[in-house]
Amino acid sequence: MNQTLLDLKGGIPQSHKWQPRTALEAFRGLTPGPRHKEILSLCLRQNQPLTDRQIKDLLGFEDMNSVRPRISELIDFKYLTVCGYVICPKTKEKVRQIKVIQKGNQLEMF
């Protein structure tokens, strides 16, 4: 093992420290992609609150991770908003419902 990592007296080397600014810069540099457009298009067509699982099922994906991160990014981009919570029939857990924030032509971002 690298002796530098084991040396507690010297602290963690600068190259191994987490730098939050990097994560923020990465988020700001994020541009919407095809999956974002697919999810937003579905939400616009459905014109009703949807859960992440409903979006996954309507788009035909098997894994929740196929849509959940993109939905969260669309919420951060202010294209979607959490509008409520329901109990998921499959998991029996409280889950978010999202809807489109109406502001002009949403698909212009693509």
Structure overview:
This protein has a domain of 74 residues: Winged helix-like DNA-binding domain superfamily/Winged helix DNA-binding domain (Arc Repressor Mutant, subunit A). It is 39% helix and 15% strand. The termini are far apart. The longest helix is centred in the middle third of the chain and has 13 residues. Helix 3 packs across helix 5. The radius of gyration is 19 Å and the shape is globular. Strand 2 and strand 3 form a beta hairpin. By secondary structure, it is α+β, with helices and mostly antiparallel strands. Strands 1-3-2 form a 3-stranded antiparallel sheet.
Mind summarizing the main beta sheet? 3 strands, antiparallel
Q: Which series of helices and strands comes N to C?
A: HHHEHHEE
Overall pLDDT score: 80
Number of strands: 3
Rounded Rg? 19 Å
Q: Give the helix level as a range of percent.
A: 25-40%
Q: Count the helices. How many?
A: 5
SS-derived structural category: alpha+beta
Question: Topology of this protein?
Answer:
Blueprint: H1 3-6, H2 20-28, H3 34-46, E1 50-51, H4 52-59, H5 68-76, E2 80-87, E3 94-100
Antiparallel strand pairs: 1-3, 2-3
Helix pairs in contact: 3-5
Summarize the structure.
The protein has helices spanning 3-6, 20-28, 34-46, 52-59, 68-76; strands at 50-51, 80-87, 94-100. The protein is an alpha+beta fold. Helix 3 (34-46) packs across helix 5.
State the main characteristics.
three-stranded antiparallel sheet, Arc Repressor Mutant, subunit A, 15% strand, globular, alpha+beta, 5 helices, 110 residues
